[in-house]
Design a protein that fits this description.
The protein is built from 13 helices and 12 strands. It is an alpha/beta fold.
Length: 344
């Protein structure tokens, strides 16, 4: 029976908490296991996880064992999904394509964004970037904006392949009063968290919360007003608990793909304020399930509206939850199954 299944290797560490690994863990849960057989990796230093995927348990030394795990995964499987491009051994792709292996990947941010750390720069130039991606059978942007703006000569599929959220793992209720505003993410310069700090100064009677860690932490703490609380990095369980107390998410970054935290917050009934630079209007409709703004003064105006209009907060809170339901992995996984079937 197993021989009739399509064998898929998810080239990720399912028990190590970053966005790509979490997505792969969700894929491993929701793919139809009567049609697909799944293989993936596990770190020796991460927590135990519940998955039906066959796991290669990486041991110490990690670099050696993870390399072995990658090679075995490719050998065992027909279809290989690579979510992250700087950890996977590059030479494997052209070598094993010769033996009929099918490789696909997703692009989660504008590769050509010259204002930030672009993939072009990371790969050492557009020519090297193009050569690397030429080895893939299929390349998907995760949003329409990325498909339209992030090719850099790379042949991206004209239909996006969305990522999702496990809605049932969050607790939803409708927000009726604005009290707590939250930022979730890495505390790095690109995220422009200084604007979150500035927003807190504009609204001293509201509470602002920063969840995450990174090199900007010390600087942010030194400039933050007394109504800003730093929570550090949180595991999924603690994050879910904290979200129950939040009313609004503000992400001041101007260079993103489709931030996973928007969907996680939305699954809890928390709407978002985000900037328009990366195509967020494709999934957020102003005053219905969140807010897409062009400038910091626009964000201030939205907050003033929400403070003075509890009905608006209730409306977008409920709308954000229905947006999250649209991107529930239970629904999104059908698109992934179609992609995998077409590759096979």
């Amino acid at each position: 029976m197993d021989q009739k299944k399509i064998k898929i290797f998810l080239a990720a560490f399912l028990n190590y908490p970053n966005a790509q690994n979490i997505n792969c863990l969700s894929i491993s849960k929701y793919l139809d296991h009567s049609k697909f057989s799944l293989y993936s990796l596990n770190t020796h230093f991460g927590p135990k996880i519940n998955t039906k995927a066959h796991l290669f348990h990486c041991f110490f030394p990690f670099k050696v064992s993870s390399f072995i795990g990658f090679i075995l995964g490719v050998i065992r499987c027909n279809v290989i999904y690579i979510p992250k491009h700087r950890t996977f051994p590059v030479w494997v792709i052209p070598f094993f394509r010769f033996f009929g292996k099918k490789f696909f990947t997703t692009i989660e941010r504008n590769m050509c964004d010259s204002q930030n750390e672009s993939m072009t720069k990371t790969f050492g130039g557009e020519e090297k970037l193009n050569k690397y991606f030429s080895y893939f059978n299929n390349i998907f942007g995760i949003t329409k904006y990325i498909v339209a703006n992030s090719n850099c000569g790379v042949n991206i599929n004209n239909v996006p392949l969305n990522l999702g959220v496990e809605v049932d793992s969050f607790s939803y209720f409708k927000r009726t009063k604005l009290t707590n505003i939250v930022f979730i993410g890495n505390l790095i310069k690109r995220k422009k968290i200084n604007e979150f700090i500035d927003l807190a100064e504009e609204f001293p009677n509201l509470c602002f919360h920063i969840i995450g860690d990174g090199p900007q932490l010390k600087t942010l703490k030194s400039t933050a007003s007394s109504n800003v609380t730093f929570h550090g990095s949180l595991n999924h369980s603690l994050l879910t608990n904290h979200l129950m107390n939040m009313d609004l998410l503000f992400l001041p970054s101007r260079s993103e793909g489709f931030p996973k935290v928007i969907l996680e917050a939305a699954a809890s009934g928390i709407p978002s304020i985000v900037y328009s630079d990366y195509g967020a209007s494709s999934w957020i409709a102003n005053n219905k399930n969140g807010f897409v703004v062009d400038s910091f003064p626009d964000a201030v105006n939205i907050l003033n509206k929400l403070v003075n209009n509890s009905n608006l907060l209730s409306k977008v809170s409920e709308g954000s939850f229905y947006m999250a339901k649209k991107f529930d992995w239970k629904n999104i996984i059908k698109q992934w199954e179609e992609v995998i079937n077409n590759l096979k």
